[in-house]
# Entry
Amino acid sequence: MHERKLMKIKNHEALVAFLFLLPMTVVFVFFKYLPLIDNFRIALTSWNLFSPKRYVGFANFKALLTSSLFYKILGNTFFFTIMSTAISVALGFILSVLLFHRNGKGGKILKTLFFIPNVTTASAVAILWMWVFDPDFGLSGQICTLLGIKSPRWLLDERYAIWVVIALSVWRSVGYVMLIFESGLSGIPDEIYEAAKIDGANGIQTLFGITIPLLSSTSYFLITTSLIQTMQVFDIVSVMTGGGPFNSTNVMNLYIYQMAFARNKAGYAAALSVMLFLILLILTVVQRRLAPEKKVEYA
Amino acid sequence: MREKVMRVLEVIFIVITTVLVVVPFLWMFVTSLQPDSAAVLTRPFRFPWPPAFSNYVKAWHVEPFGIYAANSIFVAVTATVLQLVTAILAAYAFSCLRFPGKNIVFVAVLAVLMIPTQVAIIPLYATISRLGWLDSYKGLIIPFAVDAYGVFFVKQTFDVIPKDYREEAKIEGAGHLRIAFQIYGHLATPTLIAYAIMAFKWRWNDYYWVLVMTSRQIRRTMPVGIVMMKEVSDGGTQWHLLMAATVFVLLPMVVMYLSLQKYFTNDYLKGGLKG
# Structure
């Protein structure tokens, strides 16, 4: 009798769990898992989004692996990703250290201010940056006119365009990095700094001997998540340069979009998506594998 | 002496950063209040007097921003609410119920975090198109009715709620649905608010999905609308109007951040991340 009642409760719980998980499962299956599998299949076709799919084997992969444009765009994507991440983590770190002990009104206002770019809509702020960097009448153009020099044509110049995009990416993320480092800093006990002071360590020694090593897991988290996220950049590049000039700012996600929806080469675009997915997968696996121990010893 | 040099360098660094953060916003405001294109070009740095607030009204009608704003609000709010509901349901199942295959299902949820929308955009477009959901609210909302982060964060919070609450409620005759929403949901309010803000921000700022899945103004949102405004004007961009539009696209998120700052800056969602 008792056992049967227990079985009944268990079955009931399983039924409730099934119902509770149903909405989630339906959405994930139809909008995450099936599309991912479908993408591999489309990558093996010469589909153009409309006509029936025609199987072409690995032709798309062969084509992209022998296309110099693909390597250029892959290179741009890595360059953009690594530069944005490195600069925003470095600047965010310096800011968090400089502002950590400033808890007065001024410090709080600055911290609030630096985070604002992070909540802005990327596409709208990209338009603002086009106006800032407009070489004729934008801020850059006007300042250069005042100084009596000619403004570089930022977004139309192969040498500078990618840096303008990187600058916007850094501008939007530096406040977030600062915030995460700050919560890392607040986890370091004051006694360690006091002990270091008694031992006669100066500011630089404390920074490299205590702060940086003890923030290693925070930095690791920030660097890996930032790499994975910036690797998928689309909005700001699409709006500011559309990948130009001469594909000097074109990145994987934008190239996929252009191939699929502007040139109707859905099969080729799917093959590109597979490549991007594999890169992200490797990054994620590396992130999980190499993650340092969560607990840092303070002794 | 060296200390002093460091101090000066620190101050210089902070001042430069502040200028770099603030100047683009100032430039946006000043331009948005210029009376006309000529003033934008010839007197760019002088604060326009009287400021042309009418630019905001004009810009609002250059593109149908009323429609865009309504769509933005409706899509972001609905998706956020759905995400909260589905996250509570799933998190409760994972955290409080016994059922076979629990670990496998949970791993499958975490694996979703590795499938960003963009890596399957072509089949997703095909799916949405086949369902007849292009240019529809369904197409903008339903694929985002669940979010793996949400399930994960809410589950983590539910995990630390003592079992006693559940047992007591059961004795009083509460069903699972009531326990999940009224007791667990209530106890996890700070996490839910922090998560809702994050979810709202993601949906509100989204550009890519709306760009791909809509082609008619009637279903577009602000982030796409402002880019359309820029594109149709290409060549003769009316920067004072475009900047006015940029102001009202950016403003809601900034206001939301300033008024709910503690949920942006606290540790509710950074579980396991200290140190």
Observations:
- Chain B has a mean pLDDT of 89.
- Residues 37 and 238 of chain B are 6 Å apart (CA to CA).
- Residues 2-56 of chain B form one domain.
- Residues 65-96 of chain B form the longest helix (32 residues).
